[in-house]
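Note to self: keep these together.
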Amino acid sequence: MTTTEDTTDNTEVADATVAEAAAAIGGVDLTESLSAAVRKAVNAQVTAAAKEIAQGAINDFLTKDVIATMRETALLEAEAAVNPDAAAAVAAADDTAGDADPHPEAAQEEEPEEEPRKLHHERLDLFVEKYLAHSYRREVTRTGIESTRRWCPQWWDHSEAVGRLEALWMAWEQARLGEGAEMAAWWVQFADPMMAALYDPEGVFKYCSVADGHKDSLKRLPTTPAPKGWFVDGHAHDGPEPGMTASGLYLPPPSTGRGRVVVAIDEFGE
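Structure:
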């Protein structure tokens, strides 16, 4: 709420601003209506500022910087009255500034960074020793049990065992975070078939046992090199139709005879 004294001060500031506006525009005769528009702009700013400060402190609020800002606004209003295009440009600039986020950094701070998922067992060997060996117990030490079930205490020296157990570990770490039947699914869908494959007497631990320890007897599977161009894009493709050439000519397929096939066999380890 403004007082009579405040209104008088406002009028003095407005009158001074009108004079400066006339001088800045360069000799343009400011009509009474234009003078009134400038006074209205100044009074509006003073009134808005007065609502945000304590009543009676208007003189403290009107610092030199504030008065300079009001005068600049009054000059813009005066120019807008003479040049309507300038008024439209000022309005567009104000709308753009109003839509901008005044605190863009604060908006970014509201989104907390997602912390990396922490594993319950930091390493595969800890998962096997601290959890799996205790939770998935089977008889593997009795004499003669090797015919039905095998286990190697040195499981970490078998690449297949490491691969299977690591997959089992990662599935367990994911399932433990669930709130429903995820752990039940882990036992039925992952643990049971994976451990059955490891316990298989003809599986990865075939020559190993708890009594005799680790035996590095299984060799890698024999393979022959794939035909050139068979996996150009990483996927397998059927070869050309028998008898067909790249040019489309048909040639009888060669006789198989007693062709020699070379098989690569690794004599050292898995």
